[in-house]
């Protein structure tokens, strides 16, 4: 029976891993994940990380930051990798939830609980976040399992077991503040129900030593309690409303089934006998005490709203075991001791899992969470722009109107650095105050300035964000609109390209015939001329230069008069890029009034041999393409 039951866990873990793996890179990290990574990589020594967290981020305790540091130093700091740690810990949490139910209630309860936890939409959401929440679930079920194992073991536990008890309690305290509610519930159970023998005192001693180990952190804790007591949340949840919302989350959008099954677990406590009764009673007692403590904390401190109910995810493993007890009891109530009882329980479990499966495919309870609601694909934007951008470009991300700008303040530069873009950027959001909105328009335009090679504007369409039209109009006052460079229908994402000069527009964005075709893929794609500070400012774009041998060819820009005499020139190396835009300036000095021609030459700088090219407009083949003419007036003005 034990082997058969255990093998059912394998498909559970595989299915959960599939959901978790899908999310590892499906969305960009959000602000809290960025802070988690920032603090975890601030130092390498555990004690230095702990001090940093105590000073910079006292809302958390340091164990997961230290664990993440060890993991990332071994594997890497890419979000895909850092999120994988949460997934692996989540799989351990499901496995230990099975152990908790199997060892202390029954194998069937353990199996049902593993299924329920593994497919819980709320739990699965945190399998792909660089946060400590799956770790809180693991620590909670491990603590309960270990405690019950110690006080109920037939043989006296050895010294290593007691060391493990102390370490587990200490690690729990340093994993999340609200895990103290679980430890308090265990302490009350220990006080009321555990046999008052030598083992009882050893548990007390281990807990006391763990409390001593936590004393250094009480200074940081006092700061957090003071802030939580004074701050306000606009949609705060307290008391029964909070518990009802937790039932809604745990029930994958259906609170009533969760409440009914928990009530049936209470019935099981009074109707079961022996080992099952003791296990069910312990689980229900712990859950009830935690629920009461949550009510007290929610009334005393401003901690919870719909988003911050994640602080209570530590109870998910215990909730899964209690719900599994309710499922088993449901079958017994409807079919007694007959074999049909197991079938009824299994059918009820299947119905629960079907709801959970659908909720994971189309999120219900997690749709409002920052990791889901902040849907703007910053990571995808940066990956799409990596092959297109030039050093010094600027990226404007116009996020959906319901997204808050501050949530992208750290994420935008993070992904610019992660995807190795030599660019600057900022997120632009809808602001309710028109004056604030204008300030952000002005800030972005000031940062863009007049000399960027390209400006990229990324946004999601359907619906189009309201600030898009205004910022686009302002950018077009300085830069040429090329068109749409990227469309990703899976994200409803569009990236528009603006260039310093129209000739610099990428050929895939603005389709146009080349000016001169040199063969082998090399072509002069565009040419434009302006009056510069000391001469002519020329804008040229080349495509296909990546087919040339590197560091071989140069470009010569020759200005000749009406008689073909060379008047001025400038030369520079031709980079071997697939598309490149350049802005050389030709010093003219004092030119006599008259007509002049700008000729473009490509040559091997080592031998001076020129490449012949076909001028597409005329069909002429030449090694010095006369592409632009201009005149100098009597007053010295240059006109085309």
What do these coordinates show?
This protein has 640 residues and is of the alpha+beta class. It folds into three domains: 2-370, no CATH class; 374-504, 3-Layer(aba) Sandwich (Rossmann fold); 516-639, Immunoglobulin-like, CATH 2.60.40.2550. It contains 22 helices and 17 strands. The strands form three sheets. Strands 6, 7, 8, 11, 12, 14 and 15 form a seven-stranded antiparallel β-sheet that branches. Strands 2-1-3-5-4 form a five-stranded mixed β-sheet, with helices on both faces. A five-stranded antiparallel β-sheet has the order 10-9-13-16-17, with no helix packed on it. Helix 20 (411-418) links the parallel strand 1 (393-398) and strand 2 (423-428). The longest helix is centred in the middle third of the chain and has 27 residues, at 274-300. The N and C termini lie far apart (90 Å).
Outline:
This protein has 22 helices and 17 strands. With 640 residues, it is an alpha+beta fold. It has 3 domains: 2-370, no CATH class; 374-504, 3-Layer(aba) Sandwich (Rossmann fold); 516-639, Immunoglobulin-like.
